[in-house]
Amino acid sequence: MNKTMRQIAADRGVSKMTVYRIVTREHIKGRYGNDRALHFDDTAEQAIIAALGRDKTKNNRNRDHNSDISSDTVPDTSKTNLVLALNNRIESQQQQIEHLTRLLDQSQQLQLMAENKLKQLETPPNAPKSGSEPADDQKHERAPEAPVSTESSPEQSPSFWQRLFGSGK
Fold first, then answer.
1. 1.10.1660, 2.30.30, 3.60.21, 3.30.2130: which CATH number matches 3-73?
2. What is the pLDDT of residues 98-131, one digit of tens each?
3. What is the DSSP string of the chain?
4. Using one digit for the tens of pLDDT, what is the confidence trace for 61-104?
5. Residue ranges of domains in the chain
6. How far is it, in rounded angstroms, from Cα 37 to Cα 40?
7. What order of strands is seen across the sheet that includes strand 31-32?
C-alpha cells in the first residue's frame, strides 16, 4: 500500500520536514500521484522508518550527552560545601603565614641586635667610635696609582691634530 509523506510522518509522530530530509538524504525514490503528493511503496516506507529509527537513537544519544553536560554545570551542594571548606582552609593558612612572617621579622631583629652587642664588646674601649671609619673587616687597600707627570715629556707622541696637520713648530 502506497503512503504519502504526510501519512508516514503522522504514523511515526514526526514532522513532514523530517521525513522529507530523510528522503533526500537517503536518496529514496517515490512517485507523484494524481493529488500531486509524493507516494512511497512499502520498501521505501520501511527504509524511511529505519532511517527515522537511526535518527531517533542518534538524537537520544545527543540528548543524553547534553543532559550530562548540563548536570555537570549545575553545582551540587556537596561541590559548594567542598569549595567553602577549601576557601576556609586557604584563609586559615594565609593567617598562619602572616603570623610566621611577623615572628621571622622579630627573630631577625633580635639576631641583628645581638650581633651589634657582640661587636661592641669585641672592640677595645679606647678605640675611636667614629662612624666614618669602616670596620676592620670592611677596609680595602687601594692599588698604587701611577705617578702623574705634570711636565710634558719630549718622548710623548704627537697628538692626533699634530699628526694630521703636521707639527706647528
1. 1.10.1660
2. 999 999 999 999 999 999 999 998 887 776 665 5
3. --EEHHHHHHHHT--HHHHHHHHHHHT---EE-TTS-EEE-HHHHHHHHHHHHHHHHHHHHHHHHHHHHHHHHSPPHHHHHHHHHHHHHHHHHHHHHHHHHHHHHHHHHHHHHHHHHHHHHHS-TTS---SSSPPGGG--PPPPPPPPP-SPPTTSPPPHHHHHH----
4. 666 666 666 565 556 788 888 999 999 999 999 999 999 999 99
5. 3-73, 76-122
6. 10
7. 3-4, 38-40, 31-32
Residue carrying the nine cell digits 509523506: 5
